[in-house]
Amino acid sequence: MKYVIRRxxxxxxxxxxxxxxxxxxxxxxxxxxxxxxxxxLRTAGALTFSLVAEVGDKVIGHLALSPIIIxxxxxxxxxxxxxxxxxxxxxxGVGSSLVEEGLSKLKSIxxxxxxxxxxxxxxxRFGFRNVPTLIVEDIPRQFFLVLPLGSKIPSGIVHFH
Length: 161
Description:
- The protein is an alpha+beta fold and 161 residues long.
- Helix content is 25%, strand content 31%.
- It has four helices and eight strands.
- Strands 1, 2, 3, 4, 5, 6, 7 and 8 form an eight-stranded mixed sheet that branches.
- Strand 4, helix 3 (94-108) and strand 5 (113-117) form a beta-alpha-beta unit.
- Helix 1 (13-24) runs antiparallel to helix 2.
- The longest helix is centred in the middle third of the chain and has 15 residues, at 94-108.
């Protein structure tokens, strides 16, 4: 299967919502808020990067990147996610490609690093790990992962947009 990863266009908004709905519909840890999160980020102008994976003219995956606030004042850090892939295209490398492209975009703007809430079995392959100096309240530590892209690792409480 050949797919293209590109930036979101206005015409992709409904497709992204549907991809996200389907991707998380039967997810055991989802509260079905992922579409609401993406919509709120878009409305607030807080989608630093919004990438889609596309086959032909069909959107099959999406990744959102947005700025975060860290209580120590560190700047240039971002949140990865949600990452969504249509169920019939999962486990075929689409999600990995979206993450890799997202990380490339963050490196291109010299981001200090990024964080996410997700499955460690998937995200550790990209270098994400638990960092004891960064926390998010009400999120189990094993699911809060950090990837420094620079030399400094902040210390404090992370607040998502």
